[in-house]
Hints:
The structure holds 2 protein chains of 2 kinds.
Chain A: H1 18-21, E1 24-26, E2 42-47, H2 52-56, E3 69-74, E4 79-83, H3 92-104, E5 111-115, H4 120-123, H5 133-161, E6 168-171, E7 174-177, E8 182-185, H6 186-193, H7 222-227, E9 243-247, E10 255-260, H8 262-265, E11 270-276, E12 279-284, H9 287-294, E13 298-302, H10 308-323
Parallel strand pairs in A: 4-5
Antiparallel strand pairs in A: 1-2, 2-3, 3-4, 6-7, 7-8, 9-12, 10-13, 11-12
Helix pairs in contact in A: 3-5, 5-6
Chain B: E1 2-8, E2 11-17, H1 23-30, E3 49-52, E4 55-58, E5 71-73, H2 75-78, H3 85-92, H4 102-115, H5 121-128, H6 138-153
Parallel strand pairs in B: 1-5
Antiparallel strand pairs in B: 1-2, 3-4, 3-5
Amino acid sequence: MSTLSKTMPKPMPKLKTANTENLITNVSRRGFFQTIIAGATGLALGMALPQKSEAQFGGAGPATNKPNAYIHIGADDKVTFTIIKGEMGQGPMTSLSMILAEELDCDWKNVSAVQAQVDPSVYGANQSVVGSQSIRTLWTPMRQIGATGRAMLINAAAQKWGVAPELIRTDSGFLINTANNERISYGSVAETAAKLPVPTNVQVKDPKNFRILGTNVKRLDTFGKSTGRAGFGMDTRLPNMLYAVIERPPVFGSKVMSMDASKAKAMPGVKGVMEISGGVAVIADNTWNALQARKQLSVTWDEGACSQRRRKFRERMLARKAMRPRHWRRA
Amino acid sequence: MASIKFTLNGNPQTVEASPDMPLLWVLRDVLGMTGTKFGCGAGLCGACTVHVEGSATRSCQTQISRVADKKITTIEGLSTDGSHPVQQAWIELDVPQCGYCQSGQIMTASALLAKNSKPSDADIDEVMRGNICRCGTYQSIRKAIHMAADIKAKGGRA
């Protein structure tokens, strides 16, 4: 990826609470979570992640003011985080959840994470997991939204008990009235919290009080990946969907000069053949039929600037280099 | 098109499909069971591994007509709740990274343990060598297979 060359680490910006808090919105009533948790009620917070920090690491994208990071605390004490970074094995579903759970001060056992959809108009240009950016760019905003959720639950408990919020502390998913040691769970005030305004000037934790960050928790994505339930891109199934495979040209930048798709179109289950950027798509009622039909395509390519002749020259050059390997040493 | 009957994860199953369609695509596209993965489509990577009559089999290289009347188990049928000893060990040791190859890894490992209850490192390497993992989880896989063997020996629960 070309942006990688520009991703020299910069010092972490000092944690400032003021620059993100006005971007946190209460979305409890907008029905967002009902789409991923059936009948969800409770407290849902959305946050428009600042895109500036991404640009700083070379992944400049269009600014978005739509909320694009979510936490949800259900009446049943279940906590659900929507993680905007793609889980490719590096662990953002777990690590970003740990940051959120730490500041929310919830019970890790009640945490689950869902993968956000891919949508640049909502999530910005960079949902990929590259260059160790996920933690560096999301550390501050994740702490902020988690701490804001915690503050709203405290305010809800303060209202319920008729005491000052300063008298309430939290402990692993519980709110405790320090005057009389009364305890209630987050879930029991989540609905009340959902009706409260989003506070400003929220304090994040002193790192010396971290109890989740810095520990070795179990990954949240392991169960799905050990049972065949984890959803990969290729596992998407929509009603009446069709399947496409692509006939690729021999070299980059080729264009279709001429094509005979008549045999391919006559194959079982084939719904269409179309030229797309970078190849020719064969569309059928299942992958196997599409693969079989692709073999019947006859395409003549205009290879353009990366012609076979040039490719052969490069292959000879690479073969020559391969005969004289450079010896790599461990640093 | 042909009508083909087989046993899938313990239940009778009939599909209408071209007899030469690989079992992989019948599972994924016709039956919508996406736990079994497409990797190379050439029998080289092991991502599509299922059990046919208990043996680890590459479903991308197995025509559906060849499994008529046979018993097939996929990752979805190994257990309903991730409780198979191999899955317990996988979860305990956080084996998967990206996870794409892991259904196949688990199916090959569980077929191995069904035949060899206490495999050595060499036994494991010999059987697992056909399952490629681009994340390089091989060391964890070997460790998890030993753990799964212990779990199985203790009656199936960790």
